[in-house]
């Protein structure tokens, strides 16, 4: 391989990042080419000098300052109650879509109907009263059935 | 007799934070804080701004924890966010300098930036000072790849995870970064001898 090609890979060779095949090619070339060996030495010296630059000191209290900026996020909800609330929500939207029939007299206002129904359902869910949530949903469907 | 507490893994701490124990985020800051500040300062040089950006990075990491996948490396997750914030900061600074030159305030801006530059390195090593100057002068992508390799000791594969770049691109960037720094140092040495 030519020196130009080899020199493109010297940095990666030094970093130990070459594939085994390419590593062999570079090693073989380095055995025979003093110019490329000099180039490799220069790269190694530069890397060593870069490592000598000490890391900047971190000011004391850094973790505390970060924590002071953090706004605790609400706990990620798990469990059956939130899942039930979402299921109830889905049923309401889906169910209303099925039972509401087009009426000539009254214009269809899905948003207002849904808004009232959702508010009631969510309030009930928040109170964690399973029975009232169930009854509430059943009543809603009963009212809409012709 | 004090019991030595076993070191909790990153994923264990994250699970705890997501379950509501916000205080368990602090060990992660202690674990990665110095490394992160080191990375950001190598990128932008300004020490105060580096610490500010590092704080911001941790805040963003906390906010995005629900999106963290346990099979991924937390370090890569952290540095991916740090990389984005740092590069955005550099772009903003460049725009600031550019618009200042348009309005004729370039001199004031330069003075402002000089005032904001960090204090001289304590070690007073001329070679290290030249090295830092040369590191500052290479393009951001080359600097980013080199810093992640040399100072964060990431493999090319880990760098690819942080940056989204291909491994051949990373190899090229690092090779050009080293070559660029060597040329800058040679030029600096030549300028000194010519004076």
Q: Explain this structure to me?
A:
- The complex is a heterodimer of chains A (146) and B (195).
- By secondary structure, chain A is an all-alpha fold.
- Chain A is 72% helix and 0% strand.
- Chain A has helices at residues 3-15, 20-32, 34-52, 62-69, 80-99, 110-126, 130-144.
- In chain A, helix 5 runs antiparallel to helix 6 (110-126) and helix 6 (110-126) runs antiparallel to helix 7.
- The N and C termini of chain A lie far apart (86 Å).
- Chain B has 195 residues and is an all-alpha fold.
- Chain B has helices at residues 10-18, 26-44, 47-63, 74-102, 106-116, 126-137, 140-150, 156-163, 167-194.
- At the A-B interface, helix 1, helix 3 and helix 4 of A face helix 2, helix 3, helix 6, helix 7 and helix 9 of B.
Which features does this protein show?
heterodimer; A: 146 residues; mainly alpha; 7 helices; elongated; disordered C terminus; B: mainly alpha; 9 helices; 0% strand
Determine the fraction of residues in helical runs of chain B and give it as a percent range.
over 70%
User: Span between N and C termini of chain A?
Assistant: 86 Å
- Contiguous helical run count of chain A: 7
Structural class of chain B: mainly alpha
**C-alpha Rg of chain A (nearest Å):** 35 Å
Main sheet attributes: strand count, strand direction, barrel closure of chain A = none
Report the sheet with the most strands of chain B, covering strand number, pairing sense and barrel closure. none
Question: What is the overall number of helices of chain B?
Answer: 9
Assembly state: heterodimer
Dominant shape of chain B: elongated
**Low-pLDDT sequence parts of chain B:** 106-116
**Biggest interface and which pair forms it?**
A-B, 32 and 47 residues
Radius of gyration of chain B: 19 Å
Helix content of chain A: over 70%
Order of secondary-structure elements of chain B: HHHHHHHHH
Distance between the termini of chain B: 67 Å
Mean pLDDT rating of chain A:
74
What letter string, H or E per element, gives the SSE order of chain A? HHHHHHH
How many strands of chain A? 0
The overall average pLDDT of chain B, rounded, is 85
């Amino acid at each position: 391989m030519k020196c130009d090609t080899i020199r493109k890979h010297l940095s990666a060779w030094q970093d130990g990042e070459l594939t085994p095949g390419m590593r062999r090619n570079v090693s073989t070339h380095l055995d025979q080419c003093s110019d490329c060996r000099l180039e490799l030495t220069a790269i190694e010296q530069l890397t060593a000098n870069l490592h000598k630059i000490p890391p900047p000191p971190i000011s004391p209290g850094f973790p505390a300052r970060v924590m002071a900026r953090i706004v605790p996020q609400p706990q990620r909800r798990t469990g059956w109650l939130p899942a039930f609330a979402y299921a109830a929500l889905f049923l309401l939207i889906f169910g209303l879509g099925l039972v509401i029939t087009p009426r000539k007299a009254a214009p269809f206002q899905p948003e207002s109907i849904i808004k009232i129904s959702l508010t009631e359902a969510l309030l009930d869910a928040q109170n964690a009263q399973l029975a009232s949530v169930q009854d509430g949903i059943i009543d809603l469907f009963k009212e809409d059935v012709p | 007799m004090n019991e030595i507490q076993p070191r909790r893994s990153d994923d264990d701490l994250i699970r705890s934070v997501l379950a509501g124990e916000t205080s368990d985020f602090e060990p992660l800051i202690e674990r990665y804080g110095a490394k992160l500040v080191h990375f950001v300062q190598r990128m932008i040089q300004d020490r105060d701004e580096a610490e500010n950006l590092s704080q911001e990075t941790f805040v963003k990491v906390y906010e995005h924890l629900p999106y963290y996948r346990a099979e991924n490396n937390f370090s890569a997750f952290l540095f991916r966010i740090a990389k984005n914030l740092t590069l955005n900061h550099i772009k903003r600074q460049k725009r600031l300098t550019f618009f200042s030159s348009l309005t004729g305030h370039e001199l004031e801006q330069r003075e402002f930036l000089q005032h904001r530059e960090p204090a001289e390195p304590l070690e007073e090593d001329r070679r290290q000072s030249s090295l830092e100057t040369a590191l500052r002068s290479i393009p951001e992508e080359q600097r980013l790849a080199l810093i992640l390799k040399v100072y964060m000791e990431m493999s090319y594969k880990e760098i690819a995870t942080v940056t989204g770049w291909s491994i051949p691109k990373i190899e090229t960037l690092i090779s050009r970064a080293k070559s660029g720094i060597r040329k800058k140092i040679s030029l600096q040495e030549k300028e000194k001898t010519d004076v």
